[in-house]
Amino acid sequence: MKTIGFVCEGPRDSDMLEAVICHILNEDITPLYLQPEASLDGENGNGWKGVWTWCLKNGETLDQYMQGALPKIDMIIIQMDGDVFRKEREVHCACYADECASFGEEFPLNCKVNDCPVVIPCNRHEAGINSCVEYLKNLLLSHFPGEYVPICIIPCDSTDAWIVAAFDNLENTESIADPWTNIISRKKDYHGIRVPGHKKTKAVYDKLIPVVCRNWELVKNRCSQASCFDQAISALQ
């Protein structure tokens, strides 16, 4: 049984990835929830900022950690949703290094510059899903200079796109902004599954995730990043 560590934006994301991994490998795994911490109020916080902060704090020592970890960890999965690329200025700081006199003085999440030159959406990239994914992966993996490189998954627009792909035959599923709000929880129920108050509760996800796994081939066909994740996990076998 493989031991896999999860560095995710939230517990529902790790629930989704854990179930999909078990489906791909056709076996159970031992999960280690590294980020966010169980209380959701650990020193890194949660959400995308917590993921980025975890990478900053642990990247340079990860080789040492992996060599001494007991039980042995087979892989660490890092997840950040692609919506960060279109919504958050901080991840684009490096794009505007030539316009910011304070660039490099502070980790972007700690920066207090009042006249930040970053403009959202950032137009200094090629358009499309591939540009978004490549940029965010490089951003996170730049903190891991050693031999050990985690699997980095950037679902677009979020892991909720995989839910939509499993239930609905829509065009360009990965280009739908905020699929949870705009599709899944737009009404009181989603394909007969009640979604109270737009909340991403475990009870709701426990009903959605099995459909994602059952229709995983459809999800892969409709979401390029699901297919990339499948290939990365299959390589662990």
What's the topology here?
Layout: E1 2-7, H1 11-25, E2 29-35, H2 47-58, H3 62-68, E3 75-79, H4 83-87, H5 129-141, E4 151-153, H6 160-167, H7 179-184, E5 189-190, E6 193-194, H8 202-214, H9 216-222, H10 224-234
The percent range for helix content is 40-55%
Kindly provide the radius of gyration, computed on alpha-carbon positions and rounded to a whole number of angstroms.
18 Å
Strand arrangement across the biggest beta sheet = 2-1-3-4
Structural class: alpha/beta
Question: Based on CA inertia axes, which overall geometry fits?
Answer: globular
SSE series = EHEHHEHHEHHEEHHH
Distance separating the two termini: 11 Å
Low-pLDDT stretches are none
Oligomeric state of the chains in view: single chain
Q: Approximately what portion of the residues adopt beta-strand conformation?
A: 5-15%
Total of DSSP H or I helical runs spanning 4+ residues: 10
Report on this structure.
The strands form two sheets. This protein has a four-stranded parallel β-sheet, sandwiched between helices. Strands 5-6 form a two-stranded antiparallel sheet. The protein is an alpha/beta fold. The chain has helices at 11-25, 47-58, 62-68, 83-87, 129-141, 160-167, 179-184, 202-214, 216-222, 224-234, and strands spanning 2-7, 29-35, 75-79, 151-153, 189-190, 193-194. It is built from ten helices and six strands, in the order βαβααβααβααββααα. α9 (216-222) crosses α10.
